């Protein structure tokens, strides 16, 4: 505190001490976003420590483009740290990542679900184990390159969508807990677009300024989920029947793991009068059930493992008017949230959506605003109609 007894002003990360005495761990993937965060904070004078996680056998993925946390990306993160001038460490999280993310991914697919492993990685690896490491290193906070905003409200830190809807990553961060949110910082969430981030990368002279964005799930080369599942679970791709919802057998398939709810192309059942879509996966019977598009329409969505970020307890009301996302690529839609417990609820979509699938996330937002109220996981067969 200053000698005159007045409270010290907060620095840009929200701490009442000089930036040079504020240590921040930056989670660095080797991409442009996290590299800009590290460079930005270092330029401001913060005590920056960069950490990159080795999540899988990067030797096998060294030459693979379009994925994060591969060997090339570890090398790029190190180059950024060297060019800016802050310490950088690589932590081997292969076993943690396999147990916490990859194994569940395989089991979910085998159960006919459509998992979102990036959410589990944030929840179980980056925002749990890496965050604990940050505290072990006496860091005051941990910063990431995610496009989402942390704002202080009357009851503490709140999670809000990014300023740029096209870059918003709130769907993938709904499981961030209040305690984690207190410790995390997202310096890019207010930027108007990705061009602004790349302009900062050029300003700082970063060697990754022109690096393409990651696109694939890091352990799924070329987006080929089935090949990954077959390696993890030999024999998983057992053949079976493609069956119409009315019971007709229309053909055969090479394994349920090759199909997802809502899929139309690649069914191999041409020559029919109507376009057909995958409406259900019956893993036990090894059947891919297809039907007309209207069968994909879903109104009631069961949700569990809810992480609630609202001010009042979830169960304090019988109903909440919210907006929800049931896919990362879709805009929020009006819905009614009916809590069943502190971690389970039923979501009624006021306008039915197509392709709602178990294993996907249902993310909750305040109606007409940017605040993220939490979310959970879609399970069972969502009710159609």
Automatic annotation (TrEMBL):
Coiled coil: none
Chain positions recorded as ATP binding sites: 27-34, 53, 145
CDD domains recorded: MnmA_TRMU-like (cd01998)
Spans annotated as Interaction with tRNA: 167-169
Enzyme class (EC, first level): transferase
Cellular location(s): Cytoplasm
Record-marked site positions (Interaction with tRNA): 146, 360
InterPro entries membership: MnmA-like, MnmA-like_C, MnmA-like_central, MnmA-like_central_sf, Rossmann-like_a/b/a_fold
Cross-referenced Pfam families: tRNA_Me_trans, tRNA_Me_trans_C, tRNA_Me_trans_M
Active site: residue positions: 121 (nucleophile), 218 (cysteine persulfide intermediate)
PANTHER family to which the protein is assigned, alphabetical: MITOCHONDRIAL TRNA-SPECIFIC 2-THIOURIDYLASE 1, TRNA 5-METHYLAMINOMETHYL-2-THIOURIDYLATE -METHYLTRANSFERASE
Name the record gives this protein: tRNA-specific 2-thiouridylase MnmA
Organism the protein comes from: Rhodovulum kholense
Upper lineage: Bacteria, Pseudomonadati, Pseudomonadota, Alphaproteobacteria, Rhodobacterales
Annotated gene: mnmA
